[in-house]
Structures are given as C-alpha cells and as structure tokens.
Design brief:
- The protein is of the alpha/beta class.
- The protein contains four helices and ten strands; from the N terminus they run βαβαβαββαβββββ.
- The strands form two sheets. It has a five-stranded mixed sheet with strand order 3-2-1-9-10, covered by helices on one side. Strands 4-5-6-8-7 form a five-stranded mixed sheet, with no helix packed on it.
Length: about 160
C-alpha cells in the first residue's frame, strides 16, 4: 500500500492552493496521511476528493477542522501500526518521549516543525515528518514523503522536493 505523507500545508496562509505536485502524488497513492495544520477546511475537502485521508488537526487549525479530525489518528495498514499526531515537542529527547507515548505503534507521522525527519527510536518506532509542501521555513526546499507498506514492514520511503506553483 502506497501512502502520501504531508503536513503543514497552511493553505491559504503560506500558499494559495495545494501545489500541483502534491495533488498528483495524492491521486497516485492508496492513502493520504496528513499530520495537521491544514488551516482551511476546504483543504481537507480537496484532499478527500483525491482519495482516502488519515489526518489530524494541528495548532493552526480552527474549531471547524477540530470537529472533523482527531488530535491523534491510528490505523493498522498492511500489518503496520501507524499513528499520526501534529506535535511531538522539541527534537531533543523526542525518541524517548515518543517511545513512552506510542508504545504500540510501528510508525509515527508528525508535523509542526516543517523539518523533514526520519529516525528510529531505541524501541524500534519509526518517526517520520514529511516537512511542509508549502512553507520551507529554514529548510532548503518544500517537501513531502511517500511510503510503501507491505506484509508488516516499510518497503520504501522517499522524501520528495515540492516545487511551488
């Protein structure tokens, strides 16, 4: 199963629309995973029109999005226990904190920092932050990730540069 991992779209504040590259990627996967900060409910609806979504609200999301999305989302996908959350706190100590907070999880997708992240904790939890496809902040480029899961394992993970339209 192929997944698109995105976070921190911040539409229409950081970009007027979802970048075309993100739309194309979303239409080519089995599941869109969004780790919050949609900002506009219309963005959620646009992603839902492109395919199934597993998503959470972020700190910049209002009551409308919080009414439709959980703070933490969980799903078992191809035998892999996936959780999604917007914020994980400071990078220092993140692995230890997330091991304690998500003991029954194989992959945790998160956002908030706009910084791509891929580490594995001492307990074996894979931590993935796709960055932001619309607001690179101090990063060299805007980004998203694709992830392939099969038979209980990660088969492929790729970080993709997103060129804004």
């Amino acid at each position: 199963m192929r997944l698109l991992l995105v976070a921190d779209t911040h539409v229409p504040k950081r970009a007027r629309t979802i970048p075309d590259a993100v739309r194309r990627a979303a239409s080519e996967v089995d599941l869109i995973v969004h780790a919050g900060d949609w900002v506009s409910e219309a963005v959620l609806d646009e992603f839902l029109a492109l395919g199934p979504v597993l998503g959470v609200w972020g700190n910049n999301d209002g009551a409308d999005l919080r009414a439709r999305l959980p703070e933490i989302a969980r799903a078992e996908i191809e035998g892999v226990r996936v959780a999604v959350v917007h914020e994980t706190g400071a990078a220092t100590g993140r692995e230890r904190r997330m091991d304690a907070a998500f003991p029954d999880t194989d992959v945790l997708v998160f956002g908030h920092s706009h910084i791509p992240w891929d580490t594995t904790t001492p307990a074996g939890l894979r931590l993935l932050n796709p960055g932001s496809p619309t607001d690179r902040r101090r990063q060299p480029r805007c980004t998203m990730m694709t992830l392939t899961l099969a038979e209980g394992t990660i088969r492929d993970l790729a970080l993709h540069e997103v060129v804004r339209d």
